């Protein structure tokens, strides 16, 4: 197999195993990244879209984790 394909499977497997632990760290990382973009004045580009996606994905992951803990 190609090295890139092996690396892809390792990354995807790690994310699938630990996806419930990634919610709040993604939110925190997105907020820090967003703040650093404002500090360095990079808000005129499309770059602020990435931290926004990270924050939304983190919130979604945290909600999925909380729902999996409780009995619905």
How do the helices and strands line up, and which of them pair or pack?
Blueprint: H1 3-18, H2 23-39, H3 49-69
If you had to describe this structure to a student in words, what would you say it looks like?
With 72 residues, the protein is mostly helical. It contains three helices and no strands. It has helices spanning 3-18, 23-39, 49-69. It is flat, with a radius of gyration of 16 Å. The relative contact order is 0.16. The model has no long low-confidence stretch (mean pLDDT 83).
Short key terms for the protein model shown above:
72 residues, mainly alpha, 0% strand, 75% helix
As a whole number of angstroms, the C-alpha radius of gyration is: 16 Å
Which structural class best describes the helix and strand composition?
Answer: mainly alpha
> Count the helices. How many?
3
Order of helices and strands: HHH
Largest sheet: none
What is the 3D shape? Answer: flat
State the assembly state of the protein chains.
single chain
Mean residue pLDDT:
83
What distance separates the N and C termini? 42 Å
Question: How many E strands?
Answer: 0
- Give the % helix: over 70%
